[in-house]
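W.,

You were right to be curious about this one. When I first looked at the sequence I had no strong expectations either way, so I just let the prediction run and decided to look at it fresh. Below is the sequence, 171 residues in total, followed by the output.
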Amino acid sequence: MDFRDVVRSGLEEYMDGLNEALDGLTQVELDWRPAPSSNSIAWQVWHMARVEDRWVNMYLKQSVEVWIADGWHKRLGLQPEDHGANQTAEEAVAMPAMPIDLLMDYYKAVRVTVLDHLAGLSGNDLGNTFPHPTRGEGPTVAWVLAHLIVEEAQHLGQVAYLRGILRGLGK
């Protein structure tokens, strides 16, 4: 087993948990916010997919994000540069409804590119850095892969928590 197996296993476990947390939720539940300045489950899913797309496709691969290349931003009624980081509560609330099936189709398309890129990495690549448009030299490949696992676990916890508020534990 090497680092690719560990990262792949984490990403697969995360996606399984996300699918379980989303199972059976209505669009009303997916769009519900516990407070006006909070994000919904649908927003969390969109943001998680965007983070994975940006960090791997835009930064590590230095290529066009799936979001733009495959026109997902148009399908979801958003702008190419939208990704949720530093978004105000007002901007989050003003976003169009995002059907979960469409969001998950986008996420699955992103995941294919991520796993493909991961398979092509070697241990020698982990220390490589990449240019970042606002930070100059960006973090290492190893940091990005670890960050994806941490960020996705954090947001999966938020999705599961919101589901628990809506449905109760284990429902």
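Here's what jumped out at me. The first helix runs from residue 3 to 22. And, maybe more interesting for your project: The radius of gyration is 16 Å.

Coffee later to discuss?

I.
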